Structures are given as C-alpha cells and as structure tokens.
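Continuing the batch. This is chain 6 of the set; chains 1 through 5 are on the previous pages. Same settings as before, nothing changed between runs. Recording input and output for traceability.
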Amino acid sequence: MAGKEVLFKSEEPKSRKEVADFLRLLAERVEKGEVVLKRGTESVTVPLPEHVILELKVEEKIKPSKTKRSLEIEIEWGEGEGEGPVSLG
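Output for chain 6:
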C-alpha cells in the first residue's frame, strides 16, 4: 500500500524581499545538490539528483468575501531516478 509522509513543513508570513532572499539561497543549495531545512531542533537533509521535475502552479480561489491566490513551486523526483542510464558491463 502506498503511503505519504510529511518530513518537514513550514508556513510563516514573510515580506516579498524575505521570500526572494530565501529563494535565492534555496537556488544555491539546489544547484549544489543538497538542501538542509532547519527550524529549532528539527532538521531534514534533502539530497537532490542531477535531474528533477520542476512544477509551477498558480491557483485562484474565489469566495464571496475574498479572492485568494497562490504560487506553488514544486521540485520532485523518484527514488533512484537520476542515477544515470543502465549499461552493460
């Protein structure tokens, strides 16, 4: 049976500048191939393969009292993917 486990989650208000600074730093870590996320004593290390899938999504939720928009940036890959092509020895 397939399962899903959240290893780390964070949601906090930030200014546009703070978000941009965070994304620049995140981009550097992605380029190096490893992202470490920390909050207090909690941390998770995420090694990234050379090739990943980048998904971008913009959503709009319209309610009678307000409209809410979101921009989601998702990087995904399968376990064992990106390790190179199979060859015969």
